[in-house]
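#lab-general

N.A. 3:47 PM
ok so I finally got the sequence cleaned up, no stray characters, all 228 residues accounted for. can someone with queue access submit it? mine expired

B.Y. 3:52 PM
send it over

N.A. 3:53 PM
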Amino acid sequence: MTDLLASENSPAQRTATEVAAPAPAPIPTPTASSRTPRSSVRAVLGAIRLGVSAALLLAVIGIALATVVLPRVNGWTPLSVLTNSMAPTLPAGTLVVVQPVDADELAVGDVVTYQFRSDDPTLVTHRIVSITATSGGTAAYVLQGDNNPDPDVAAVLPEQVQGRVAYAVPLLGHVNSVLTGENRRWIVTGAAAILFGYAAYSIVGGAAAGARRRRSDRARGGYDVAAD
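B.Y. 4:20 PM
back already:
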């Protein structure tokens, strides 16, 4: 009896028994197909929101620089185009920013703003089509609107020229016409600050939400697994 028990509990038999034991079933690994549709939709909407907010932020910065910062820093003048005489280059409603320039720097092809008459505050923005001289040898500029069939009635003298158009921003001339003087500066600056704050908030919020989502995915093994 003792020999039989020893034989049944020998090391060789125990090893064989252990080897023959069935291996545990593998734990299923989540795959990309097990992601919930809700998670995918949230990811897409988050990316769209982040992209739109970034574009809005860049647009606000660009508009603020073009209409407020650069003119104020450089002493340039923003003006509104009221007619279509310079269409399609500068249609009505365009905001033009005029920079002072010496008369001897003007050339054919430049778009300039000039005072129609010394006793008339009306300003005209047209293109120089030729340069002549008065009987006294002073330069005189012949101007014409791109959309006009004929040049302006009279040549323009250097003292009439207010400046050369540095750049133009479509459509903002309508806003410039409504907002004048000190009110324009405060309203434009305030609106730009509000839009800038909103865009920055959206970008930061979107980035934070994306970081939280990634941490949550890693905690679940990298995927959002659908429940049975």
